[in-house]
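Hi X.,

You mentioned you wanted examples for the new student's onboarding notes, showing what a folding record looks like when two proteins sit in one file. Here is a clean example. The first protein comes first, with its sequence line followed by its structure tokens.
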Amino acid sequence: MLVKLACRNIRHSVRDYTIYFLTLLFGVAVFYAFNSVGSQQILFDIESQADADMFKQTQGFLSMFSALIAGVLGFLILYSNGFLIRRRKREFGTYMLLGMPAGQVSCVMLIETVLVGLLSLVVGLVLGFLLSQAMSFFTAALFGATISNYQFVFSPLAVQMTVLCFVGIYVVVALFNTFTVNRQKLIDLLHANAKNQKVTVRNPWVCLVVFVVSLGILAYAYEELIASGMVMLDDPQFIRATICMLVGTFLFFWSLAGFVIAVLTRARGVYLCGLVPFTVRQIASRVNTAFLSLWIVCILLFFSVTVFSVGMGLVQVLTGNIEAANPYSATLIGQVYADSAVSSVYDQSTAIDQRAKAMQAEAPERYEQGMAYDWDMATVLRANAPELWAQTIAASAQLDTYDAVGVTYGSLFDHIDPAIAAHMSELSDHIAESNIVVVKLSQVNAVRALTGQSALDLGAGECLIANNMEITKEVAADIAANQLSIDVMGRPLTYRNEVVDTQFQNNALLATALVTVVPDAVVDELIAAGAIPLQCWLDVMYADNGNTEVANDEALNQIVAASQPSDLPGFDRGFAGRNAAYASLLWPVTSIYTAHEMTTQSGGLKMLITYLAIYIGFIFLIATAAILAVQQLSQTTDSLPRYRMLSRIGCSQRALNRSLLVQVLVYFLLPLSVALCHTACAVGVISEKLFTVMGVPVAGPIALAAVLVLVVYGGYLLATYLTSRSAVNASLKAS
């Protein structure tokens, strides 16, 4: 009997359950789809542990965030369920008036919750399963791979997590429903629809003052945010901007309704027109009573859209040029020497032999070996594993970087566009005082030959600037265009009006930055004066030996291990903690970056950031849209007597529907508009400091965010209007 009654109630309350069911459905589908990412690896050719770890790490992060997502969905479902309880209080009172005990009424609600929950869980899992299949192709697109042997991927672990999560949520909802019904008095249930919510009327002049103050606070927040550059999250300016943004937004929504009513009521030509008074009062009533939730919704929308936009932009920054950044099969890096006092990237030595003396004192074994082999990495490695080297390596070229002591980047910045020079100083505090980095022309040509680039030449007294890093692109172009002059070891050199675009080593990014290509004789004189390299880069191309990239990478590790086994004693170590088959030394090999390894890491990073941005952005959009939908449906339900009254005095159904549409649009678009203003400021700052500097267009991420908002937020807006209109029209027909 109770089951039959529960089924009848669900059937008769389909309209009321629309938003609730959609929220459950989307929640289950998205939860399953993103927690099944780890199972997609069976569709791809997993060649190494690094490839498998890529999926494992992504799944781990998504599972970690799923705990937060579960909490958000739980709150959202409970919040939506509260609307259903409030909507049906009179119905429950009628049951009790007819003699049904409160326990049985609670049991009916429990059965309804279980039935709707089971239906949403089953349908959501089916939808999530289909969504996860689509995500498999999306994952393949992220890696630029193809799925040769497609098969349906089912994740029992994702199903288990989804079922456990939502069963837990449904249990909480059922307990909440039982508690709510049991604690209500019969008289309160029967007269629930007759009670009007008390509306607070605020002084319009106070609202006007607070409204102006809120705009001032928000303007100050934007100014501080722009000034901070959002570089460091613990920056006092960024903290002040965040606090002011929160306070300003809160005061904005608190004062908005009273301020708008005060303005509109004085513009009688606009206010006293059609159903404008009714529409305005309806909106103002909701904003006055729900300003706190509007504030929360606005902040969540800001967070959602910003995370999605910035996440998509970061994907392009970190992985957009991965193939161009890794033109060689592998790059072996010899750090040579570095300590806390002398930077290994931008050297600030005051004497040519300063680094050599420091290394000779602190790492004599590595220093003696480097000097004995003339810092030639390939000679050392080939000598200790000749057969494996011949089988694995087809060609190699080494590039050694040196610092031109006494010739600083600041001496160049003094003669370029001051705005560009100031921008470089903002990016690095010490670059102006650092010695410029120089390399031999012959070594550059050898490296260029590996990838088929033509050889460079230098005339008497000429040098070239090499650069492909976006952040220093304007500086390099200005140095070349102005044909600046430098003096290295008593040799005057003038930069040719040409920028060399060559990636000197495998890297996560295009990383050749303001390197000066000089005649070999210049570097030879530096060496004769006691200079040692800043770094040694050995670029290698694998032989066409029939092995996979993973097999060749492993062979390269073995070649290095033959020269520097992992248990090699000594204190002159490079970067400690590297999990490799070889010892991480200062020289000959500190670290290895293979094209396969970098591409795999890039793909994993792209997948992780993309999925996290979509996952978080999508769920928070659902949460905000559902909260607004429930509130708007609640107001529509409470206002049904008003709509019937307007209909009786002659208002057309079309006019009432138009008024309802305006209410829904304003209620949804108001927090979205404020959130988009906040997002525009934040994304604008990040774009200027990161995306534009790295040459990444911000239009793409913004367009993707707009599509996400349009689909999710717009879908809830449309569903809310159609459901509200259906309720109003049904009420008018019943009267």
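Then the second protein repeats the pattern, sequence line and then tokens:
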Amino acid sequence: MTELLSNYLNGTWQTGTGAGTVLTDPVLGTELVRVDATGLDLAEGFAFAREQGGKALRALTYKQRGALLAAAVKVLQANRDAYYEIATANSGTVKNDSAVDIDGGIFTLGTYAKMGDTLGDKHFMLDGESARLGKDPLFQSQHVLTPTRGVALFINAFNFPSWGLWEKAAPALLSGVPVIVKPATATAWLTQRMVKDVVDAGILPAGALSIICGSSAGLMDQLQQFDVVSFTGSADTAAVIRSHPAVTQRSVRVNIEADSVNSALLLPGVAPGSEAFDLFVKEVAREMTVKSGQKCTAIRRILVPEALYDAAAAAISARLAKTTVGNPRNESVRMGALVNRAQLVAVREGLEYLKAQASVLHDGSKVALVDADAAIACCPGPTLLGVGNAAGSDSADRIHDTEVFGPVATLVPYRGDNTDHALQLIRRGQGSLVTSIYGSDPQALAQAAIELADSHGRVHIISPDVAALQTGHGNVMPQSLHGGPGRAGGGEELGGLRALNFYHRRSAVQASTAVLDQLSPAV
């Protein structure tokens, strides 16, 4: 029987009492490990994290907590090879795609470690300047941010078992808030191994970092008034979380990242074969295939002037045709697998749903797999759809409403050089994590960015002058906001020090100037 992974709760490693769920290799179909959380004393574990882990973290300064994060980075870097092996086996990703998750997570953790230095030897943060409460400046108001005296529960998605952990845990731990992570079952192995390495290294105080693998049943029931919960996943599950008594009755703070039908926009005036056009085509094809399209930030809708529809379809299809698909252990393979059979079925069903309103421009189902059995491997080829003309862009509501979570995108033409029509179509996504805009005219790019900023968490502009510097449509950098309004969940993560706000409570201290002077950064 396969190994049963341990959970870390209440400061001890514990195995569930059930048979567990088997994790499999999505390419070879072989069994890997089992995960199970049956029989864990959740109430005791949450209390331990809240009381022991939280107290110990809050006793440290931001600088000291940053040093703990830096020490964790060293442990993770020392074990990178093992993480890559797990990612290949459990997620079916090629090396470059594993790097987005593994190295991206470690980089984010390291970035917040450095931020701890900038915050210095203090236990709270000032929020803005003091304000007079009357004509006499003797009595004033000063807003402060102090760490919440609760626990941070993370219910994470399957596509980023490393980055999904550390991009949330880094600002939480730096804030002085203990973390309990519940990774998605399908890819929990990598998250569990990383947590185990950090815990076993004895870096963090007991109760500061815990992990529960398996079912999420009962987790929300443990949350109390000063706890927080961050969820990444489907809008349906997000609705269940928002309606839970912990949120509706106990006012637990919640952050949601849900479905997102992201877009890429090619502005008018860009000629086929130009540098801006080629950057657009390259980025679209890359975003369709990185991690087999299993990214919440992946491009789903590709907007071009109607006159460039055929040229864009041909250029993107040509790049997709060069993408080798199959076993990530083969060095010639550039795109691996979806995480399991259920996801493969979902992608195929989603494709059929979209094809009722769109035609196939590049057919991924005809791709010959490398070193993989099509009857076993969860390896779809990249598929480009298109709606043909601007009228089709208006009427094909499914492409604006439906996210197929795989290597699938739809080419959407807009009328003539009518940028307003393009912006209107993009907004039909009802709020997205990211949109990217391509062109060469700085004024037109800036204007489009501001027009789309209200409905997107991030606007990524790619012009020829930053071709070698831009970080990628789908890459989430710790310095920039990650999240989005509307259907994207309405949440916010990262954004530099802004991420710490979620784990702090804001309070106004009203006192004499002499008292407020004691609330200095050196305290």
